[in-house]
Fold:
Amino acid sequence: MGRSFVYVILGGGVAAGYAALEFANKGVAHGELCIISDEPVAPYERPALSKGFLLPEAPARLPAFHTCVGVNEERLTPKWYKEHGIELILDTRVTSADVRRKTLVTAAGETISYKFLIIATGARAFKLEEFGVSGSDAENVCHLRDLADATRLVDLMQASTGGNAVVIGGGYIGMEVAASLVINKINVTMVFPEPHCIPRLFTPKIASFYEEFYKSKGVNFVKGTVLSSFVINPEGKVIGVNLKDGSYLPADLVVVGIGIRRNTSLFEGQLTLEKGGIKVNSMLQTSNSSVYAVGDVASFPVKAFGEIRRLEHVDAARKSARHAVSAIMEPDTTPEFDYLPFFYSRAFLFSWQFYGENLGEAVYFGDFSGTSFGAYWVHNGHLVGSFLEGGSKEEYEALAKATRLRPAIDDMSDLERQGLRFVVTLSQKQPVLPIVDVGSSTSLVVLEKPEYPWHAAAGVVAAASIAAFAYWYGRRRRRW
Ligand SMILES: Cc1cc2nc3c(=O)[nH]c(=O)nc-3n(C[C@H](O)[C@H](O)[C@H](O)COP(=O)(O)OP(=O)(O)OC[C@H]3O[C@@H](n4cnc5c(N)ncnc54)[C@H](O)[C@@H]3O)c2cc1C
Structure:
């Protein structure tokens, strides 16, 4: 017994929601499309889990952050799917796939067949066990990838007010959670092996700015070491952690944010993989022409960089999903996917955006003791990346536009002198280009409450959180 659909989206996360919206916009017929997800709820804006969801007062809760509220589009509640004739097959794990036969088999044994498949299986959080440390299944140790994790974290935070939390990992999840814990009146120690936070994006100078701010909020940083074991009481609760440098930290709560692994296993041996993800072309099509891959699980050609990359950005998930649907439904008129990597973050009173890549030499501008500063990255004589803290909407747009142009830089001192003026002037001279939209910065209204002027420190280009543990126990992981 089984069901058959024209289009199947495997995975029910951010990319799935945006793909569904695009299918609806393009006029999919009732009964043609289904989403299969092992989560119990319709697709939602995952970044909310480390932001509005963790607020101590008036926290964001579903249905407020179902996709596609993240870019001020329609909010796709279960009712919306019903009205559009899109079947949500929830709480259902797909356990095997056969791309030759175009079938998926669920844990309950149902076979679901498709004409076109979009793989949107995202990723899962690494566990310490994968690095030889046991104990992360204890009741007061948390990861943060899905709604169940976030709900558990909220319960633990509520039970730990005034207590001690240890955050393992200095990537974006670690930084976001540390801010949330502080807001929830918990003492925080962050432990990571690198010399500074968010090492894949931040330079020491940028990191130092944010770390100083976190310190002013009481966060303690323990750098250059890693967790070696949990200290667990007879009731099975973690009461502290031992670090490899020999020190001990008491803990009422431990949050582990050490990176993610792509959910590719169903397709290994069937589709071409690259850089840890499922390789797609500029139409988001895999090595099997009926199968597309989008979001975190996809490795796609980033034209601006001239190579295949796999990003872990919500913006990339949204846009790749929509593009794949367009490529499936309107193959003759859909252009190649031309994406400029974009990431944003808000923490405490700060807010920043990053475009392009952080390659080459960094040139700083603005006031690092004030509220607005930034950096450009210049590689082989071209501006390839840009970062701005505290910019206006127009300034971020200029930043995106100019970075996409990859302008030649002859004089680094002049670039430094001009600072933000450089991109503003350049963008005014240029015709309007298809830039990455910065909607995400204005979009998370429901997810990030203005009365709490903190938000999550976010991630970086390609696997910042993995980088945070790149040197875990001296074992260098492959950098994707
Ligand atoms: C807490 C948190 C905060 C974040 N904050 C930011 C941020 O501020 N900025 C930013 O750019 N990015 C952020 N991200 C990253 C962003 O959320 C991801 O890039 C995005 O969710 C990727 O979308 P996706 O659809 O590819 O994967 P996901 O959203 O992870 O969805 C994958 C879905 O597939 C399901 N699935 C997997 N395997 C199966 C299977 N075999 N059967 C059935 N279902 C399956 C999963 O359960 C899940 O529902 C954050 C991520 C997290 C976890």
